[in-house]
Amino acid sequence: MEDAPDVATLREILAVVDLKGWRGMGDFLLRTRRLIVLPGGIVPTHEHDDRPSIVTVIVGEITEHSAFCAVPILHRTGETTPEFGAGHRHWWENRGSTPVILISSDVVPNGMMNDPHM
């Protein structure tokens, strides 16, 4: 799978919960973000081997390129997809002419909250 760059994707952190110490958790955060992927925009190649995430398409259609699928996956408004597990590597692109809005919640190591690959 190719390494796609970060292109024309805006990220806004909506809420963060510090999980440190909760049920033996290390120094992790539960983060919810709004991503706006402009036309031609790309959410860069990233992995979910040890970073659980749930993404919901709020507005628009976006194409996912996944290490698990030979054919790109089209996600439409209202669809939700979990992202987690060994070998889960992917990137997303907006092939349309209007912005796509996503809501993403994930668990990230403290200090990595603003990394576009996380």
UniProtKB/TrEMBL annotation:
It comes from the Bacteria. InterPro entries: RmlC-like_jellyroll, RmlC_Cupin_sf. This is Cupin.
